Predict the 3D structure of the following.
Amino acid sequence: GGMEVEDLQAKYELLGANAKATQPGKMIGDRIQKLAAVAVGKVAPDFTLNTPEGKPLSMHSIKAKVKVIDFWASWCGPCRKEMKSLRELYKELEGQGVRFVSISLDDSEERWKKACEEEQIPWLSALAEGGWEKSTIRKALGIESIPHIIVVDKEGKIAAKNARRNILWERLEEILNKK
């Protein structure tokens, strides 16, 4: 469930033709196809979500050298812990063309807004409709657990998936230092 497309593809290739023809084999093949569309190096899909003020926010409308898109929820302890690290990174990279966006997978708008206030999120924030269970963007991106951070470069391509803390910092540094 939580494998990236490259790892899943490698495991899938170990299966024989009979195993690939089974229902589980077909499900894995379908998953690989869906994940390949949103793999590192592919153009990130555009989607529009609402901000706490009720304004629509389109991901492609955000102009930046790099976008850090954080998927989280108020009920997720590791997400709340990761938020502290993101705030530090945000302060460090302020003014360098990096835009942060936190997308909540809460099923309650009230809990999401309360958590945004508690976390003092200084960057863009939006709520994915449908919460964890029904969020179409979560499913489209193949997100199986949170926190899940995606990095999108200035060309709109996915530069990293599920990158956190040191790995996130290294990837951002690499992208920002490209000429």
Observations:
- The two ends are 37 Å apart (CA to CA).
- The mean pLDDT is 91.
